[in-house]
Each structure stands twice: as C-alpha cells, then as structure tokens.
Amino acid sequence: MITGLGGATIWSEDLNKLLPFYRDVLGLAVSIQTPGFVVFGKPDAASLGLGTHSEVRGYNADPARHMVGLLTDDVTKDWKRLKDAGVEFIEDPKDYGNVSIATLRDPEGNLVQLLQLSR
C-alpha cells in the first residue's frame, strides 16, 4: 500500500544550473550531495532532489506539467524576499481559503509554489 510522498526530483541537463538557486536563493538545506545529484530536506521525510539527467535538455518547454510545493510559515515574507532577489513570480501571494500560494519560476523555467497552510 502506498503510504505517502517520499520526495520529488527536478532533472536538469546540468545540476549546477539549478543548485545555486535552490540552495542559495531559496535557502534550502542540502542533506545529501553526490556528483550529479543533491537532496534537500531530511532523509526520513519528503524531500526534493535535483539531478543531472541525460534525457533533459535546456529550458523547460512545458513548465506547468509539474510543480514542486515548498511549505512556508509566511508566504508574503518569503515572496517579498525572493522578489527583491530578482526571482520571477507568475503568481503573487493569493489566499485560497485553506492555503495561500505564490508561484515562481526557477532558472530553467520549472514552476515552484510557496505554500502557507491555514491554521
């Protein structure tokens, strides 16, 4: 029986095109790093991986096909910090009732959502 999400991976032609954005700009902590692959988050929880893949080339031509959701405790604060750092947002923070969402693009055009769950 499937019991939950173990993680998601974003593949790139070159890991080094994405790693500085996720680590330095978004501020995600690296938990595992090997040549061509890195994992953010705790190994025993849902995690995000980035890796180099031989079948991936260039900028994402279909960025809405999948989106990674990153949890935040203050979507407006993180939106402002990242916007000030030059990150491109395609959706500013919006309240959807049980969650507030802001959507951004990474350097290869992949969509990433910042999610603040309502308490």
Give the number of helices.
2
Strand content: 35-45%
Low-confidence stretches: none
CATH superfamily: 2,3-Dihydroxybiphenyl 1,2-Dioxygenase, domain 1
Mean pLDDT: 92
Please report the first level of CATH classification, the CATH class: Alpha Beta
Q: Can you give the helix content as a percent range?
A: 10-25%
Q: Strand order within the widest sheet?
A: 1-4-3-2
**CATH topology call:** 2,3-Dihydroxybiphenyl 1,2-Dioxygenase, domain 1
Give a quick set of tags describing it.
119 residues, alpha/beta, 2,3-Dihydroxybiphenyl 1,2-Dioxygenase, domain 1, four-stranded mixed sheet, 39% strand
Can you tell me about this structure?
Helices cover 18% and strands 39% of the residues. It is built from 2 helices and 8 strands, in the order E-H-E-E-E-E-H-E-E-E. It has helices at residues 15-25, 75-84; strands at residues 7-12, 30-34, 37-40, 47-52, 67-71, 89-95, 99-105, 111-117. Strands 1-4-3-2 form a 4-stranded mixed beta sheet, covered by helices on one side. Strands 5-8-7-6 form a 4-stranded mixed beta sheet, with helices on one face. The longest helix has 11 residues, at 15-25. The chain starts with 6 loop residues before the first strand and ends with a strand.
